[in-house]
Amino acid sequence: MRVSVFGLGYVGCVSAACLASMGHEVIGVDVNQVKVDLVNDGKAPVVEERIGELIAEVVRTGALRATGDVREAIMGSEVSLVCVGTPSEPNGSLCTAYLERVTEEIGAALAEGAKQGGRHTVVFRSTMLPGTCLNLLVPILEKYVGGTAGVDLGVAVNPEFLREGTSVRDFFDPPKTVIGELDRASGDAVTALYDGLPGEVFRVPVPTAEAIKYADNAFHGLKIGFANELGAVCQALGVDSHQVMDVFLADRKLNISPAYLRPGFAFGGSCLPKDLRSLVHAAQRADVSVPILAHVLPSNSDHLQRAVDLVERTGKRRVGLFGLSFKPGTDDLRESPLVEMAERLFGKGYDLKIYDANVSLSRLLGANREYIESRLPHLAQLLADSVDEVLEHAEVCLVGTRDPAVLSALPHGDGPVIVDLIRLPDAEARQTEPGYVGLAW
Fold it and tell me: What is the pLDDT at residue 363?
């Protein structure tokens, strides 16, 4: 394919050189004439493993050249990759000035009729927040071109997952390829660019592709911060943190796995809250600052409050709660987030009915009974004997269980407002219903 790459920094330079080495005809574009001259001389404008040799080779064969002329680049390509920077503003917000400028230049070049023949596809590879492409950049293109994105020109978002220092290696052996496609033809054009590379390809809506890069980097930062905080606590307690993490990393069922990484409701139970409190307390006694660990429980509490806020926004007072124990298939109520939510709603004066097939007040014993009597002493009068009893009572139903009897009875359309805490199996279909509200979807 004939490809233009806008921005010859780390991402653009590597993308241009690697695509050229795959057999594409690539034109690099940059406002900095020094970078343009370096590339045309077969030299890399960035320091990166293997990039010098790669650029020298693809420039020598004629597969890559560079220019500062946007019109020339658009005329000579059918796909444009936008790889300009999106730095932080002083207040932490995303700076889109470079994105907007290059989008305007591409749109103007297309409008001048510089592109002859088939439809041109503009692919945004720069990191940008969800909504940036559709709400900011697409309108700019459509304004200049005088056409409709997805019809008269292609648009896609293609985030990169290149680590500085190993970016060439990462390009040819990517962890995944993500293509946010405005329409099928746009996605096809991007897919063709990477034909032959390993790794799974995800073709998703544009906002999803924009969000994925942030999910990756936020988690990477969280992992590093978690490891460092745990290491500091272990050192203060005289424990070898690397031995601890060796064992931690060996658990591929719960620790290094998809476990616990699906958005849903707050956590609870007899272990997680208690152990987090103990660890944070031990760190404080040892004068070790652990802001990540110290904010896990407050974050959990805030997420629980979001569910309460959803109920309050309905303006309705009769509430049904499906599920009470902290985990399905158990009657353990200790530090259950559903108990906490019931307590908050009851305390605010809501008329509450609760159904959990595994919870019977007469069967609760020991610490479990003591806990519920201290937190929700009125439980006996709140518990319902059946799903139907709750449905008949409630104007708002909070669903915190996957009990088949509950799921099969939940109405569609007219009926109580459904506040989904677990992402119901039919959540996508229900999202079009006015009485459905999902938490953290």
Answer: 61
